[in-house]
UniProtKB/TrEMBL annotation:
<comment type="similarity">
    <text>Belongs to the YccS/YhfK family.</text>
</comment>
<feature type="transmembrane region" description="Helical">
    <location>
        <begin position="420"/>
        <end position="436"/>
    </location>
</feature>
<feature type="coiled-coil region">
    <location>
        <begin position="167"/>
        <end position="194"/>
    </location>
</feature>
<feature type="transmembrane region" description="Helical">
    <location>
        <begin position="442"/>
        <end position="458"/>
    </location>
</feature>
<feature type="transmembrane region" description="Helical">
    <location>
        <begin position="45"/>
        <end position="64"/>
    </location>
</feature>
<feature type="domain" description="Integral membrane protein YccS N-terminal">
    <location>
        <begin position="49"/>
        <end position="312"/>
    </location>
</feature>
<keyword id="KW-0812">Transmembrane</keyword>
<feature type="transmembrane region" description="Helical">
    <location>
        <begin position="94"/>
        <end position="113"/>
    </location>
</feature>
<keyword id="KW-1133">Transmembrane helix</keyword>
<protein>
    <submittedName>
        <fullName>TIGR01666 family membrane protein</fullName>
    </submittedName>
</protein>
<keyword id="KW-1003">Cell membrane</keyword>
<feature type="transmembrane region" description="Helical">
    <location>
        <begin position="465"/>
        <end position="481"/>
    </location>
</feature>
<feature type="transmembrane region" description="Helical">
    <location>
        <begin position="493"/>
        <end position="511"/>
    </location>
</feature>
<dbReference type="InterPro" id="IPR049453">
    <property type="entry name" value="Memb_transporter_dom"/>
</dbReference>
<dbReference type="GO" id="GO:0005886">
    <property type="term" value="C:plasma membrane"/>
</dbReference>
<feature type="transmembrane region" description="Helical">
    <location>
        <begin position="70"/>
        <end position="87"/>
    </location>
</feature>
<dbReference type="Pfam" id="PF13515">
    <property type="entry name" value="FUSC_2"/>
</dbReference>
């Protein structure tokens, strides 16, 4: 990014055509936001669409030297049209952001010596210049993004496991740790989606390769590690009681999970190195834990023995996945049977629709993006009107602040408003001190470029710091162009405060998108995904089929929808207290839904690694009861209480099958299993399956009760 910006400016100065250099610089800068995580193909398309959009917007903006009464509606219409592009997904929202930046700067920068059409074409050329640099960087190191994303996923998975281990031991701050775990899971699922896009789309475009298959197999192991980690322990109260009666085992299991987490960090550090440390410590921990479990008197505490054996078995499965990753990182020769079919893999990608029908469907106040686009256009017109009527030095700074700060959600807009003001004030004070002592224009020019590059580097990680560096860069540039730099600094701060206040007021009072209006649908979508995953699990157990692609897609969708729900709840929790309607009930539903997925993951992991006995009629009845509960919750959440008959608001008395499920005890296991030679294996299976069914029923029934109160 630094090269894309600095080279045109340096060449423009050297060749005495700074206007051309700036146009190329702006084109490269505005095309850069869409160069985010994802496949190279999607990056190229994003940059090309950004370049085309900013060219068109700059061309139109170049001819907007008209009366204010005509300019305002045109500004509003352009803002709405550009912002509305965001309905087509995350990358489209970045393209939209580029277009809005170009629109704002068309009010600020009037090129000298260039016609508007020449200026806009040069901006498009700047976008192509940036695409050229991105393409060169990709072909010089095509593996860089994949490996960077995998390393980040290793680190996040390690952090997730570490938090999971802390949850096993902590009681006092368990709620806080669970919130941290949910945030980490959301972030991990996002990384998984990025890796799917990179790995699967690259196979579609460039074909199979040993390297791509190896990375894909590593990614699959990481997905399964996450699933197994989520799977246990589910019922912390049971685990607390169990560990209190079996002293020392809690520390053993924590040490095992901590060591698995540490090994993942080692993989991240030693990625692509054949010489990776061995697993001596982990092997010793597993052996010592197994020895301790074997000292438990089975006749006295057989239930505890079975639970601990199952828990240890899950950790052993994690160990097997670690060994598999280590083998894959050693650059082995893969057999053709280990190559994955691209046709099946394509099912894991979420298709993005780009037809006009989607634009028409979202043209309603039910659409968050529609309301955001309309809100943004009104605030942009208001901001420009205020800046013009009050005769501010640079009213476009108000517009720039609005574009950068305003987001569809209240929480993010509020945080950005605060960070923008603080960052701008800090940057202004630092810049004032520097320009007071430094008078050399060349030094100020170099500093402006350096601070701008730093601002882009930290933009995603720390917006406050980024705002400070942007302010530094702007002040340094104006210090070269104008003698009254301290007046410029004052206006910079004032414009930022006005833009931030307008943005904050608009998100609060102008067609607000409060979380409580959307959260019911988010919960319903997640419950539906979990229900479909449960149906796939039950089908595998009943029919004794192998795990199919449909099963894996259902699992992936369940995890993704739970992640989306977690993110939606976090947005709602950031909103004003008066708008957090039914927050406690919603929080409980979100936690129960997450626990439901954990229980499903337990069953899924068990079925993938064990041969099971024939499914009984009792099992089939239990599946039907749980599925009916989940269907009811989904239907209840999708309708308002006014649309549901009063008779349906009461839970029906539980049937005999449901009573048996509700009152299930470990002592009932013997009656459920068939007498075979491998009696102990049957005990393990029956206990795990029925304990999870009892748990799933308890969760689904509780969710059904809670859904009545929303």
């Amino acid at each position: 990014m630094g090269i894309a910006i600095t080279v045109p400016i340096v060449l423009g100065i050297a060749l005495e055509h700074l206007d051309i250099g700036l146009a190329l610089c702006f084109g490269a800068f505005w095309s850069s936001p869409s160069n985010t995580h994802g496949s190279f193909r999607n990056k190229k398309l994003g940059i090309l669409f950004s370049a085309a959009l900013v060219t068109i917007v700059s061309f139109i903006g170049g001819y907007l030297n008209i009366q204010l009464i005509l300019l305002l509606p045109i500004l509003g219409l352009l803002t709405f049209s550009i912002a509305y592009i965001s309905i087509y997904g995350f990358r489209a929202s970045l393209i939209s952001f580029s277009g809005l930046l170009a629109l704002v700067l068309s009010f600020a920068h009037t090129p000298t010596g260039l016609e508007p059409y020449e200026y806009s074409l040069l901006i498009g050329l700047g976008g192509l210049w940036y695409l050229l640099l991105v393409t060169i960087a990709y072909y010089l190191n095509p593996k860089a993004q994949t490996e960077e994303s995998l390393i980040e996923t290793f680190e996040l998975t390690a952090q997730f496991l570490k938090t999971r281990a802390q949850l096993v031991g902590e009681k006092s701050n368990r709620k806080e740790l669970q919130n941290t775990l949910h945030k980490l899971q959301t972030e991990l699922i996002e990384h998984h989606e990025t890796l799917r896009d990179i790995l699967i789309v690259s196979r579609k475009t460039s074909g199979n390769s040993k390297y791509q298959n190896k990375q894909l197999l590593i990614f699959i192991q990481l997905v399964e590690i996450l699933e197994t980690a989520i799977a246990n322990p589910v019922d912390y109260d049971t685990m607390d009681t169990l560990f209190e009666k079996n002293r020392g085992l809690k520390e053993n299991f924590q040490s095992i999970i901590f060591e698995i987490s540490e090994q993942l960090n080692v993989f991240a550090i030693s990625f692509n190195k054949k010489d990776i440390s061995c697993f001596n410590k982990l092997e010793k921990l597993l052996k010592s834990t197994k020895a301790k479990i074997n000292t438990i008197d089975e006749k006295v505490n057989y239930e505890h023995f079975v639970i601990l054996q199952n828990l240890l078995e899950y950790q052993e499965k994690q160990f097997e996945k670690l060994k598999r990753i280590k083998w894959l990182l050693s650059n082995p020769t893969l057999k053709s049977s280990e190559f994955l079919a691209t046709k099946k893999l394509k099912q894991f990608l979420v298709p993005q629709e780009y037809d006009l029908k989607m634009g028409v469907q979202n043209f309603t106040f039910k659409s968050t993006i529609f309301k955001h686009s309309l809100r943004l256009s009104v605030v942009m017109m208001t901001g420009f009107l205020v800046g013009t009527l009050l005769q501010f030095q640079n009213p476009y700074w108000i517009l720039l602040t609005i574009v950068v700060i305003m987001r569809p959600s209240y929480g993010l807009t509020k945080d950005r408003s605060k960070d923008r003001i603080i960052g701008t004030v800090i940057g202004a004070f630092i810049a004032a001190g520097i320009v007071f002592f430094v008078k050399d224009n060349y030094i100020l020019g170099v500093l402006s470029i350096i601070t701008l590059v730093i601002a882009f580097m930290v933009l995603q990680k720390n917006y406050k710091v980024s705002a400070a560096f942007v302010t530094l860069s702007v002040v340094f540039i104006y210090a070269i162009l104008r003698p009254d730099i301290f007046v410029v600094i004052q206006y910079r701060i004032l414009d930022t405060i006005i833009g931030a206040l307008l943005s904050f007021m608009a998100i609060k009072w102008l067609w607000p998108a409060w979380g409580f209006l959307e959260i019911r649908g988010d919960i319903a979508s997640s419950v539906l995904a979990n229900q479909k995953f449960f149906v796939e699990i039950a089908s595998v157990y009943i029919d004794k089929t192998s795990v199919s692609t449909n099963f894996k897609v259902a699992r992936k969708t369940a995890f993704l929808q739970t992640s989306n729900l977690n993110a939606a709840f976090q947005r709602m929790a950031q909103e004003p207290k008066s708008k957090q309607k039914n927050l406690d009930t919603i929080y409980e539903l979100v936690v129960l839904n997450h626990t439901l997925l954990s229980s499903l993951a337990t069953l899924s992991t068990y079925l993938q690694h064990h041969k099971t006995t024939p499914a009984s009629n009792n099992f089939k009845e239990a599946v039907t009861i749980i599925e009916d509960n989940l269907k009811y919750v989904k239907q209840r959440l999708e309708k308002s209480s006014q649309n549901i008959e009063a008779s349906t608001l009461k839970l029906a008395a539980p049937s005999a099958s449901e009573q048996r499920l509700m009152n299930f005890k470990f002592s009932d296991v013997k009656a459920l299993i068939q007498e075979t030679q491998d009696q102990e294996k049957n005990y393990h299976e029956a206990h795990l399956i029925w304990e999870q069914l009892r748990w799933l029923h308890s969760i689904s029934r509780k969710m059904r009760e809670l859904s009545h109160t929303l």
